[in-house]
Each structure stands twice: as C-alpha cells, then as structure tokens.
Amino acid sequence: MQASIPALTDPVQRYVARAADTCLIHAQRLSEWCGHAPILEEDIALANIALDLIGQSRALFSHLGQQMATPHTEDQLAFLREERDYLNVSLAELPRGDYAFTMLRNLVLAVFLRLLWERLMKSADPELAAIAAKAIKETRYHQEHAGDWVIRLGQGTDESQRRITQALQRLWPYTSELFESDEVDAAAQAQGVGPAWGDLHAQWDAEVRAVLTEAGLTPPAVSPFRSTGKRGVHTEHMGFLLAEMQHLQRSYPGAVW
Fold first, then answer.
1. Would you say 160 and 215 are in contact if contact means Cβ atoms under 8 Å apart?
2. Distance between CA 63 and CA 75 in Å, rounded?
3. At the N or C end, where does the chain have fewer CB atoms within 10 A?
4. Cα 150–chain centre separation
C-alpha cells in the first residue's frame, strides 16, 4: 500500500490547496453522472465540466507541488493524502443526489469559482494568475449551464419544482462555509496571492439569488450550522469517496496509463 505524503502546513499553500481540492472533489462527484444523466447531451456536458475541473485542479496541484519543500507531483497531491489533509469545502463532497441537486450545486460552486478566478487573475503569483485566466473561461460556461437548468427546473413541472426546492433546502446550509475567512485567507491576502473568500460573499449572494428568483425559489433562512471541510474536518461521505478515488494509486504505487 502506497504511503501518504505529508500534510500541507504553510498557510498560502493551504489556500491554493483549498481551491484545488474543491475542484477535484467536485469533479469526482460529477463524474458519477457519466452514463446516468437524463439525456445524452447532458451526459456529455457533465463529463466535460468534470474534465474542466480536473484540469483546473491539475494546474493548481502542479504549481503547488513545485512550491513545497519536498516537491510532489500533481498525482501525489491528488491521490496520496489522508482524508484530513484534503481541504475542499464540504459542499463538494456531498453525495451526487438527483439531477436537481447536481445542477444547484454546480451553480453555487461555479459562481463562487468564477469570482475567485477573477480575483486570482490579479494575483502577485504570476503562475496562479495565468491558471485563473484560463480557468475563468471554462467556469463562465459552467455557471451559464447550471443557471439555465435551475431556472428550467424551477419553472417546470410540479415534480421538477419539488425536486429543486428539496435540493435548495438540503444544499443551502453548506454554502456558508465558502465564506468563512480565517488565518489561511489572511496570509494569502497579506502576500497578495488572492482574496479572503469572505470578500466574495456579497457578489456571490446577489448573483445566485438572481437566478433563484427567476426560478421561483427562495433560499432558506441563514442557519448557525457550519461545515468544516476546508479545515480538513469532513462529512461521513468523504472517506467512501476517497477509498474509490485513491484505490489505484494506493494499490499500485506509481501506476500510469
């Protein structure tokens, strides 16, 4: 069994890992739709979105691995860490759910990531700025695609309205974690690497609510609940996801296609 690599301790490296892990785990959940989407066109669309997110995570991991005291490859960072060393938001790791849940999660994360990439394009780290400049083009499409579906479901049949309403009730409490700023954000902001995630909240809220309003949906009241995935404390679903995701690299160290 392949041993795990050491945990990231530098706050700026953890800042980059939060974005990389969120893209990676979100992509893993989206890939579960391959062959199961309601129509062929959406099967292809979701596979392509997942591939875009994997590409974004690869670029971030490659850059991150070069900054570490002991360099690591993108594959090592993606597949050879312990559960508590992954720093994705909990929202990304929740089970696939139905199509309404998937589209709403896609919207919530796409708007957030687009706003993050916009800020990172001005990063003092030139490579990070270049990664963001490429990623934002893909993420704009992800946002448009998800937004169209949320509106379509909200304005659709009684069944589609029921499902998208249930998805909103389940998903919304997890959005607060996106905007919890801490010492990791403070370090990245102080060094000009990127914004505190909390600074993105007002614009994110306005854009997401505009789509929800058009779909005839009202977000639940703010909840005191806070998920903690980006601090490495995950839901019960994360271990099962990683067991499947890491199996090949753990069982056959260094395996490549």
1. no
2. 12
3. C
4. 18
Q: Alpha-carbon distance 90 to 175, whole Å?
A: 9
pLDDT band at 256; cut points 50, 70, 90? confident
State the pTM of this model. Answer: 0.96
From residue 9, alpha-carbon distances to 17, 87, 183, 215 in Å are: 11, 12, 12, 42
186 Cβ partners below 8 Å, 6+ apart? 11, 196
pLDDT tens-place string over residues 85-125: 999 999 999 999 999 999 999 999 999 999 999 999 999 99
Token pair of 217 as six digits: 């949906």
CB of 245 closer than 8 Å to CB of 21: no
CA distance 12 to 99: 35
pLDDT at 50: 98
Average pLDDT over residues 29-42: 92
The beta-carbon contacts of 215-221 under 8 Å, at least 24 apart in sequence, are 215/150, 215/151, 215/153, 215/154, 215/155, 215/164, 216/154, 216/155, 216/161, 217/150, 217/154, 217/164, 217/165, 217/168, 219/168, 219/172, 220/168, 220/169, 220/172, 220/173
Give the pLDDT band of residue 257 (cuts 50, 70, 90): low
The span from the CA of 89 to the CA of 109, in Å, is: 10
